[in-house]
Amino acid sequence: MFFAQVPACGGPCTEGCVTLARIGEDAWALGDSKRPDVEPLRFTTEELDAAGIDPARFGLGA
After folding, report:
1. Contacts with 27 (C-beta within 8 Å, 6 or more apart), sequence order
2. In angstroms, what CA-CA distances link 25 with 7, 8, 43, 44?
3. Is the pTM of this model over 0.90?
4. Distances in Å between the alpha carbon of 12 and those of 9, 34, 42?
5. Distance in angstroms (rounded) separating the CA atoms of residues 36 and 61
6. Four-CA torsion 27, 32, 38, 39, nearest 10 degrees
7. How far apart are CA 53 and CA 38, in angstroms?
8. N or C: more exposed end of the chain, with fewer CB within 10 A?
């Protein structure tokens, strides 16, 4: 499956970033750019919200 990952960093992205991609109507993939070989974790919009992760920070709409 191909999806565009959008990075979000707490500072300069020199050591890696968290990446987020919408992979379905209510499905998201959260990855680590330092470990691109590791399968991203998958979450629903409700789970992201409960974890305090806002797709808008990544420039993505919920």
Report:
1. 42, 43, 44
2. 20, 21, 11, 9
3. no
4. 7, 14, 25
5. 24
6. 0
7. 20
8. N
